[in-house]
Every structure is written in structure tokens, then in C-alpha cells.
């Protein structure tokens, strides 16, 4: 991403170079520690190649002096030219190793950071994901880490190189021509710094121009997207005016920027090159007074350009380091986030499947003022089937999330086989619970991989048995690639009913004591529905089942229905009992929600 250097830095991404902030950067450096051998070797090569390059102007000066007959250790023009070539050759070999060694460090340590981030990320509790947007998290793994990679591979090396150039260059000049050096140091660095500040300002202006242009493009995009609306409201003239107005702004800002850009270029031509002219002029007077040779003047001017360049380079690096601190801050923030608890060592415990909610009161951490569950109390025996009914937002899914230990319990308790789930390791607990979700999302990969997700060690026979029970084997078999058929974004698209049956096969393979069915709200076609229903019936057999019910067909079969409203259970009983309650919430829901089902002849 070297090409990004020099772009205007987003102010919000920069951090001050304080001690505390530098400590953050060092927090990231621990990832480079395993590769410190490469790093040190790279630094040595860098050091050597920087020193080597610094001898170049000196020897070049001697070459010119040799032409005018000045005495040096070697007076032969060809000999000195060969030395120069030799310097370049050694320098290029050093540079190769420097780049290669730093790449070793940056590539490997960035991989380690990415893996550490990802491993940690997927282990974070649900509350973390509630508070973050996916895009933001992805950008931490991608852009933030890439920026750190630049820091490890380019920025640090550049920093060292520029500092060496600056210090050694100036020291050498002071030693050889002190008066001219003093003269140079009070002109050139100041001019370079002014040029840099000016340059930054101009880049900021051109970013404003780009922003204005983007705003203008939004008008075009919006209009074209809603062309029907624009035409039907005869808004053509209005939209054209809006666009013209936006473009006027672009021109205004761009012209302002152009004024400064022009001034900048004039400044560079006049002041910066003027500074160089001044140095050469002063040098020339020294030469004519016999205090300095022409070759020394040439090497002096070359050193001066080196020094000017490294002052400019350091300014750039300063910005890069500030940005890198911002990135490491964001990366470390995730790494320091507390992961879900893990209780190590314990064997996976199989449960019989009795569940008891004891006066559970709950609010999501992100919304502390809002009680989502308000004293939920029920128990389900092993193998029993219950349904949760209620309007959307009543708290049905929250009950499931708590059972899965996605969130820490507040008041009350949840017992599994009589034991509080507070003491359970979340992963072991989830091993005992199978879920068939409302919307089945399959991972990109084969059908086999998707079914195996439940139990990676399962045999071919077990997979086929599970698929058969789930009424999925028949359609899987019909694909030319069978179980190896690719699904997901790059594979074939399965129908809703087919995906449901894959999810059922997955759950069968997992063979959990407890099953959660989140029924799809949108209905499948009748044939598919029957196949899914039959598969579900098989899956539910002998398992404690909680259904978030949307279908009358399932709800009629359950042992008990809990009717939820605003986080409370307000009615409980079977379908007949609850339907018979006049003015009952369930009876009302049935009329409302299941009207479609009721009108179906099959029900
Ligand atoms: P149901 O499943 O019955 O539709 P939910 O349990 O999903 O209801 O939601 C109950 C209430 O909790 C709703 O008001 C919903 O907005 C809120 N809620 C659900 N999930 C979260 C969450 N992760 N963070 C904050 N509030 C949530």
C-alpha cells in the first residue's frame, strides 16, 4: 500500500505521538517478536545500505575533482567510476536483503495478528456483536492490519533510513565544509518544512473537491434510481438544477484549490530552487576563493538534496506512525475484549433434557432500561414438546438466547437437568442443543460440509442416514455431484424447503437431547411443507423440543403452549384449551396469525 503514502490522512485516524500511544504500538510489536531474528538482520542490512548510499555523493565529487586534476587516493577517472558502480552494486544487494527480510517479518506477523484477531473475535460474547457493526469488524481485520503491515515493512525501515541519512549526512558536511553547511542548514530545512505544510494544506483542499464531486454524483445516482418518481412528478428541471448547483460548488472549491496549487508550484520553483541556488552561489564563492574544490561543491549539493529529501520523508513517516497507532489501538481493543468464559477439562456432559426457567428477569445489556423478560417461569420434562407463541417482540427468541447462554443471566435462574446453567461451559451446553433456524443460511461449500458442520467426525453412512431421515437424501441424490454439490454463493441455489431439510439433517447428525425449532414465517409450497413437517416430526421424536411457533400444524401437536406478551407468560395450555378461552390472547393470535393455515384444507 505504498501508493497510499502521501494521501491526506483522515484526522480522526491519527493519534498524538505521546508515550501512552507509543506503548500501544509496542503492544502490537509483540507479534513481531517471534521473528526478531529476521528483523534485526533486516535492520543491519538497512543500516549498511544507508551508509553505503551516503558515500555516493562523496565519491562522485572525487570523480569530478579527478577530471580537473585534483589529487586523491585514486586519480584515475575510470577507477573512481568503477568504485561508484561497486558502491551501487553492494548497495543494491543490501537493499534486496533488507526488503526480503522485512517482508518475512511483516507478512508472518500480520498473519499471526489476523489469526489472533479472528480466533478471539469468534469467541467474543453476543453482547460484543450487538454493539458493533460487521463492516467495522471486517475493516479491523483488513485495513487496520494492512496499515500495521506497512508500519512493520516500510515505515520503520524508512524512519531508520531517513534518520541515518540526516544525521550522518549533516555530520559529514559539518566535518568537511562547516561554513557552507551552516549556511545550508539555515535555508534548506526551513524551506522544505514550509513546502510540506503547504503541500498538506493543498491535499486537504483537493479532498474537499473530491467530496463535493461525490455529493454531485449522488444526485445523478438518486435521480437515475428513482427515474419513475422523477418523471411522474415532472421533476426533471428540479433535478437538473440540483445537479447544476452541486457542480457549481465543485467548480468553486476546485478553483480555490487551483489558486493555492499555483502558488505552491511558484513557491517550489522560486523559493526551494532559489535556496539551492543560494547554496551553490555561496559554494561557488568559496570555490573561487580557493577554499573548496568543484568536486566538493558537487558532493555538497548532492548531500543537500539527500538531506532535504529525508526531512520531507520524515514528515510523511510521522503521519504514518500516527495512523499506525490508531490502527493498533483498534486491533488491541478487540484483543483485550473479554472472551466467552470457558471451563476447561470437563468432558462433554450428555443431558436428559429437562429445562426449568425460574423467575427469569432479563434486559439486554445494550438496553438496560427495557425489561425484555419479566419473570418467566416454566418447566419442560425430558422429551416434552412445547411451543412459544406471541406477537413479534414478545420475547420468544430471547428465551432461546438465554437458554443457549448467549447472554449472561440477570435475576432468576435456568436449570438444565436440575442444574443451573450458570455453572455450564457455554460450548458444552450448546453441544446438547440443536437448532433448526427460521432462515437457513448454508455456508459456501458442499452439501456434505454443511451437514458435517454438526459433527465433523461423522461417517459417510451416518451422513446419508441423517439426510434420509430429513427427507433430503432424495433431492441430494438427484444432483450429479450428490453430497459434493456446491451450495451457497458460488454453488447452486437450494429452495427454502431444501435448505430447511439440510438444516434438519444437520440437527439429526448432532443428535442433541434438546431441540429448538424456529419456524419459518413465510410458508413453503404444500409439497415441500409436507416433506419438511415429516422430517421435523422424526427429528423431534424423543427430544425435548421448544418451538417458536408460526404454524398451526405444529402447534396442535405440542404438549403445551406458552403464550407470551411483553416478556410475561400470560396463558398456558394446549391448543384446544387455549382456543376455547373467549377473549384469550392465544385465541386472538390464532385468528390473526394462523388465518392462512386455518383456511388450508390440509389442516
Ligand atoms: P420475539 O422472538 O418474540 O419476536 P425477541 O425475543 O426477539 O422477540 O425480542 C424481544 C424484545 O427484545 C424486542 O423488543 C427486541 O427489540 C429486543 N431485542 C431482541 N434482541 C435484542 C438485542 N440483541 N439487543 C437489544 N434488544 C434486543
Summarize the structure.
The chain is of the alpha/beta class and 603 residues long.
Walk me through this protein's architecture.
This protein is α/β, with parallel strands linked by helices. The chain has 20 helices and twelve strands. The protein has a six-stranded mixed β-sheet, with helices on both faces. Helix 2 (36-67) runs antiparallel to helix 3 and helix 5 runs antiparallel to helix 9. It is elongated. The model is unreliable at 1-9 and 598-603 (pLDDT under 50). Residues 130, 364, 366-367, 372, 390, 392-398 line the site of adenosine-5'-diphosphate. Its main location: membrane. Residues 40-323 form the ABC transmembrane type-1 domain. One of its GO terms (biological process) is oligopeptide export from mitochondrion. The chain crosses the membrane at residues 38-60, 80-101, 159-176, 182-202, 264-285.
What's the helix and strand layout?
Layout: H1 19-29, H2 36-67, H3 77-122, H4 126-131, H5 134-176, H6 178-225, H7 227-232, H8 236-288, H9 294-336, E1 355-362, E2 373-380, E3 385-389, H10 396-403, E4 411-416, E5 419-420, H11 426-431, E6 433-436, E7 445-446, H12 447-452, H13 460-469, H14 473-478, E8 486-487, H15 496-510, E9 514-518, H16 526-540, E10 544-548, H17 552-555, E11 560-565, E12 568-573, H18 575-580, H19 585-593, H20 595-598
Parallel strand pairs: 3-10, 3-11, 6-9, 9-10
Antiparallel strand pairs: 1-2, 1-4, 4-5, 7-8, 11-12
Bound molecules: adenosine-5'-diphosphate.
